[in-house]
Write a structure and sequence with these properties.
single chain; 169 residues; alpha+beta; Immunoglobulin-like; 5-stranded antiparallel sheet; 1 helix; transmembrane
């Protein structure tokens, strides 16, 4: 609901236009009041709309869900003829503690895992899934796991990990 305040128009002094003829002060003052009222109404309407939109959608730049989230940090690994070791860490990037996590990625070549320390893991083709062990699933906001080491074999030089995801549980 919008309330419009009505104002009284008072006659103003006669004004002269560029040609020198007198213009009615009443018309000019009334027009200024109307345009000023319209301007104020537009500003108030825009402010009300912005406040309503912000209340519904949240502040700009604010995460819509202040819940659990995580990421997988991949550190520079070691590679040797026929094998590799990749240090990994799961980081709680959310605002609440994690009660567990699962990470997935895709290898770019023929890499085969032998182990991922401190996790339960599986590999199907190039797709790898790893979940927390019973002792490292609980992470406070901003905390990270100890190093998880992915060890395996490969006949080609190691490439980047693709489709990295971390899912809080």
């Amino acid at each position: 609901m919008t309330f419009i305040r009505q104002s009284r128009v008072r006659p103003g002094p006669a004004r002269r236009d560029r040609a020198g003829s007198a213009a009615g002060g009443d018309e000019m003052t009334e027009q200024r009041v109307r345009s000023g009222t319209r301007r104020r109404l537009a500003v108030w309407s825009a402010a009300a709309f912005t406040a309503l939109a912000t209340a519904v959608a949240g502040f700009p730049g604010q995460a819509h869900a202040d819940g659990p989230s995580c990421s997988l940090a991949v550190e520079k690994g070691v590679e040797w003829r026929g094998g590799f070791n990749i240090p990994l860490r799961v980081v709680n990037t959310g605002t609440v503690p994690l009660n567990g996590w699962r990470v997935t990625w895709t290898f770019t070549g023929d890499q085969k895992l032998h182990a991922i320390t401190s996790s339960r893991w599986s590999q199907t083709g190039r797709q790898v899934t790893a979940g927390n062990a019973f002792w490292n699933g609980n992470l406070a906001p901003g905390a990270q796991t100890g190093q998880l080491a992915a060890n395996g074999s490969s006949s080609v030089p190691f490439g980047p990990l693709l489709d990295l995801t971390c899912t809080p549980l």
